Amino acid sequence: MIVAIDGPAGAGKSTIARLLADRFGWTYLDTGAMYRAVTLLALEQGISLDDGEELGFLARNAEISFQPGPAGVPRVFAGCREVTESIRTPEVTSSVSEVSAHPEVRAIMVEKQRQCMDMGNAVVDGRDIGTVVCPGAELKIYLTASVAERARRRRLEVEKKGVRVSQKRMEQDIVARDDFDSNRLVAPLKAAADAVVVDTTDLDIGEVVERITEIAERVGVPG
Ligand code: DC
Fold it and tell me: Residue with the nearest Cα to atom 4 of ligand 1?
C-alpha cells in the first residue's frame, strides 16, 4: 500500500509523512531529498543547470540511498557519502526546482522511486506522487497552507541552523518555488483529482497527523 503526500514547499509534508510512516510501521520515502541530492552533485561538479541531458546522466549514475537516522529523520547518502545536511543548504534549495524540471531527470527519478515503492508499504512525499509516480496509491493527500504560514515555518527551520532570513524574503522564495514547480511542463505540482486536500494553516503537527489518520482509517489504510 502507498500513501502519497503531495503539496507545496513548507506545507509540512516531510514531517507529517515521517510521523505517519512511523505510526503505520511503514517506510518513509522523501522524493524531494532525491532531487536535492542530484542538485548538490550538479553544483559540485559544475554541471550547467540548463543541461537536461547531462543532468539526466548524473541522475542515472547517482547512487542515492536512505538509512534510518536520529529522531526518525532518514539519513541521505550519495554513494557512500552522507549528504543529509548538505542537500538542505540555501544554494541547493534555490537550484533544485530548475534541476527537477528537466524531463531527463524526472524520468530517472520516477523509475528509482517506483523501485523503492516496490519493496513494500510506504508513505511517500513529493510533488507528483499521486499524479505521476503512483497514480494507484491507496490514499492521496494534498497538504497545503497559506504562503505566510509556510514561510514562517521555513524561517523557523533555517533559524535553528543559525541562518537569519526575513519573513518577506522567505515568502518571496516560497512563491517563486511554487510558481516554478506548478508551471513546469512535466509533472507539475498539482493535487490529483482524487486527492484529499488538507489545509494545515491553522493546525499543529499532531492535529494534522490525527486528521490524516482518520481519513486513512476511513479508506482502510493501513488495512
Ligand atoms: O520537498 P522539497 O522541498 O525537499 O523538494 C525539493 C524540490 O524538489 C522541489 O522544489 C521540487 C522538487 N520535487 C519534485 O519536483 N518532485 C518531487 N516528487 C519532489 C520534489
Answer: 32
